[in-house]
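I hope you will forgive my troubling you with a question about protein structure. Could you please explain, in whatever detail you think fit, how the structure tokens follow from the sequence? Thank you for your consideration; the sequence and its tokens are set out here.
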Amino acid sequence: MKISAVRPLVLGTPWRNLTYVVVETDEGLRGVGEVRMVNHTESLLGYLNEAARHHILGSDPFRIEDLTQRMFRRDFARPSEIMMSAIAAVEIACWDIMGQALNVPVYQLLGGAVRERIPAYANGWYTVERSPAEFHAAAKRVAARGYRALKVDPFGAGFYELSRTEKRRAISLIEAIRAAVGEEIDIFIEMHGRFNAATATEMIRELARFTPGWFEEPVPPENLAVLKKVSDATGPLGIPIATGERLHTPYEFRELFELQAADIVQADITHTGGLLASKKIAAWADAYYMLIAPHNVCGPVGTAAALHLAASTTNFKIQEHFNDFADAWVKDVVTGMPEVDPADGSFPLPSGPGLGVKLNEDFIAAHPHKDVFFDLFKQDWQYRQAEQPAAQ
């Protein structure tokens, strides 16, 4: 079996584009991968075009390690987010092909299931005014859907520092969420790499009384020594630090592990080279007694891939899920995707061969690529309505 075509398809939403990569074979099987490339979709498409000619076409989709290593090493370039995301989308599609060919779900190929349920947490739910009343009501809606955990960035457009007014507002928002969901539901506090060490440390200490499940990416990802500084300063509070969505290669994770600068690893399957690369990172993290909670802002194909990793990975903690709240209509891009069970806030194991989902290309055609720019550092970004290009 050989790969005969690579077809990227872009679905537009009001704030980001979702890129689906269909990999076809000369035996008629086709697999699909997905990646969300905020603000760099055109770059991703350009790289895929060149990689298809030089690396992918004619390859055996069963020889995943060989294909991904050629894409990773043969270009004589340092791996970037764009490169690793393209590799991931193609790699996931190859696992989909292999599972279909062998008539088994992908998680069976990754070692088999180690759990029967996959806990999930909600994101993208707070597209409301940054007021305690609005956040309280929105959090109530999450709990009503059965989720046992939710994530929130309460910090507005914060960068490095916050004014005293903004500090008080962030605290009031988390207080409102805790009042809404009670003590049995986890609140994960997203910091989006906004702060310097001093501000991150101060806000972690201030918010610790609301017993969050973790503090995520308190400082920018480039300087892990600063993350270690924050981790050391807040460690006595006993609340985990989570990070990793903007680390893309094993070499970046090596530094995180050796510094012991965090407790929970949030590798994004679609930005770190795919399922096999993420499985290796998870095993490496396990040697440091760290849990993984994969970052996921994809639509249902990327989410399906994440569920297969979760099903087969011993040190998995919980899965991020956007698609019940932010642009829930994107779920219609596939059939076969399991839903979060409102009884326990968990996904069932994926079923069906391969990823278990089928892509609707007509749906993508009806929601074409959008020219949008999403900025987490502008006021009211939480509405997830990206900037539109200026009229010519």
About this structure: The longest helix spans residues 81-102. The radius of gyration is 20 Å. The chain has a mean pLDDT of 97. Residues 157 and 379 are 5 Å apart (CA to CA).
